[in-house]
Amino acid sequence: MTYLGTQAEDLSSPSLPFRKICVVGAGSWGTALASVARSAGRETSIWGRDEATVEAINSRLENPKYLPGIPLPEGIRATTDIAEALDGAEAVLLVTPSRTLRDICLQMRPHLGKGVPIALCAKGIEAGTGCLLSEVASEILTDHQIGALSGPTFASETARGHLTAATIAFQFSYADRLDTASSPAARFAVSLGSDFFRPYISDDLVGVEVGGAIKNVIAIACGMMTGAGYAENTRAALIVRGMDEMKTLADVFGGRRETVTGLAGAGDLTLTCSSQTSRNMSLGVQLGRGIPREHCFDGKAVVVEGEVNSVSVMDLARRMKLEMPICECVYRILHQGADVKETFAEFWARPIEGERRGLSISIDRPVAAAVEITQ
Ligand SMILES: NC(=O)C1=CN([C@@H]2O[C@H](COP(=O)(O)OP(=O)(O)OC[C@H]3O[C@@H](n4cnc5c(N)ncnc54)[C@H](OP(=O)(O)O)[C@@H]3O)[C@@H](O)[C@H]2O)C=CC1
Ligand SMILES: O=C(CO)COP(=O)(O)O
């Protein structure tokens, strides 16, 4: 058995932390992750495009735009120069919104050190192509191992040092399986782990990415129903049926169902669907209360990944003939102007079906109608 970290007597090969980590993206999650890396003792740089934010991180140890009032540890070096940020970095956390990923990978490419692994921290599926973000990054950064960091992690809580667990997933190469401790996932884990941040390692990159992409769409649905006045029973049902939609997509991409029940699936889904700290849930609540989209968040542009991702998810679902009824409700309300209550009433009145997908059963309602059961 290979142990990670400092249990020296059992180490077949110690998992070495990265000396320097570069965080690309100085929004709320990028800044929180820079704080995580620095608190774990890493040399840490952060790249952001906004000069005022960069200046404030360097001079006041604060990101007033995205994490106001939360002190950052000393020693994070912020810059608007991507070459400077990446100089000497042994690993990268890429933390800009999913729609920017392709462009940012192209910007990073000339400045990355040889073989530097990259953990993607955005949650989503690329619009238009239906690609997982790791597929997009791998297409551009061909010489780099690409993984993901995901889980139930509100940036403001993590940055305040609240106990937070996350999953770091990389597909394991043959060499990684022989020497797990030297794998990028293990090295990220020991590099970021601290008294408040607890990483878990996974080799199911696809499962982790699917969880992160779908949970935001389901959180919008939970918010819509909450805002429209439905109760806790309904929200719990949506969370669990939403997990079923995650499983459907994980199956198609080749992810594992057990990952869907882990931190990056059920964990993140539960967090995001239970709190209006979530921008996705909060958007749903506002729309459910009848607030027009342009007035949500007081008219400010806020990153709501589930809003754009509902389009890519429905596009995939249609092309692959997948049943994802909750994602479809969100899509119809957000992008086709459907009414929240009417849409969810139709969703609720669908024919009775097996809880498990393999159990193919469809009963038209009212129950007196024809019953078909196939196993
Ligand atoms: N916040 C959270 O709790 C968590 C977020 N995530 C994920 O992390 C990703 C980033 O979200 P988050 O940090 O919260 O978002 P924020 O809205 O807090 O910040 C977005 C950041 O991205 C920058 N940005 C936007 N567009 C571009 C662009 N075209 N090129 C370069 N930089 C750009 C913004 O810069 P500028 O200020 O100049 O506009 C800003 O620094 C999302 O996919 C989200 O789902 C994951 C886990 C937790
Ligand atoms: O992904 C998140 C927590 O894990 C943040 O969720 P929101 O983007 O909905 O705020």
Automatic annotation (TrEMBL):
It comes from the Bacteria. Substrate binds at residues 123, 279-280. Residues 204-343 form the Glycerol-3-phosphate dehydrogenase NAD-dependent C-terminal domain. Pfam families: NAD_Gly3P_dh_C, NAD_Gly3P_dh_N. The active site is at residue 215. Residues 20-171 form the Glycerol-3-phosphate dehydrogenase NAD-dependent N-terminal domain. NCBIfam families: PRK00094.1-2, PRK00094.1-4. GO terms for cellular component: cytosol. SUPFAM superfamilies: 6-phosphogluconate dehydrogenase C-terminal domain-like, NAD(P)-binding Rossmann-fold domains. PROSITE patterns: NAD_G3PDH. This is Glycerol-3-phosphate dehydrogenase [NAD(P)+]. It comes from Hoeflea phototrophica (strain DSM 17068 / NCIMB 14078 / DFL-43). Its EC number is 1.1.1.94. Pathway: Membrane lipid metabolism; glycerophospholipid metabolism. Sn-glycerol 3-phosphate binds at residues 123, 151, 153, 215, 268, 278-280. NADPH binds at residues 28-29, 49, 66, 123, 155, 279, 303, 305. It is found in: Cytoplasm. HAMAP family: NAD_Glyc3P_dehydrog. Catalyzes the reduction of the glycolytic intermediate dihydroxyacetone phosphate (DHAP) to sn-glycerol 3-phosphate (G3P), the key precursor for phospholipid synthesis. PANTHER family: GLYCEROL-3-PHOSPHATE DEHYDROGENASE, GLYCEROL-3-PHOSPHATE DEHYDROGENASE [NAD(+)] 2, CHLOROPLASTIC. Belongs to the NAD-dependent glycerol-3-phosphate dehydrogenase family. The keyword Nucleotide-binding applies.
